[in-house]
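Sharing a chain and its predicted structure for anyone who wants a worked example. Both blocks are below, sequence first, tokens second.
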Amino acid sequence: SAEQTPEPSPFPLLLIGGALCNDAQMAADATPGNFHTLGDPTEGALLVAAARFGLWKNQLETSLPRLVELPFDSERKRMTTVHQLAADSTAAARLAKADLADYPYLAFTKGSVDGLLEIADRIWVDGRVELLTSAQRDRIQAANDRLAQKGMRVLGLAFQPRHSLETNGAGEPLEQNLIFTGLFGMIDPPRAEVQAAVATCKNAGIRPVMITGDHPLTALHIAQELGIDTTGQVLTGQVL
């Protein structure tokens, strides 16, 4: 349901980026004031998180219309969208305070935290940009692992103010030299009947195997919850 008087968010750029670098939509229910999401449930959760703080995707797209998209793929494990940056937008006001007001475009990249750390060289801290140090990288990785070990699906977000829309690597290549912004952690619990189904299979002599695109630590937590894991080992696609 819609929040009538949302509390101000300490993470506006994170929430704005999560809502805009996103292909899900929010639609109104028959009951006034209630909404539901359409599209990928993970992306829908990001829209709900932003909306709870008064940042509605349809309103954000008015002041930050999407102009370019690099879709998600399983190799990069991220997606990027580039937006026109209106001078009167909330994002522009935040960037102006960090001396980043002279950019007509703003790119958001959403995806695996590990992958984002490989292409980010700065970090957004309390409304300003700092160099991304090894200590900060370790802190981000530790936070990612801590959330994943709790069975959460974790996504990271980074942004890049841009002077141009070129995506051919001339001057301002996309998905390079990004400013890491933050992490989202969300619960994606297995259905209640899965644990019983796994037990039935094991009792029948069938060995269940789980294949997932989640972080290895997230996968391990869920497998242990369901009674699938017996060794504590996770085999990644890269290893295969």
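Comments welcome. Confidence is low (pLDDT under 50) at residues 1-5.
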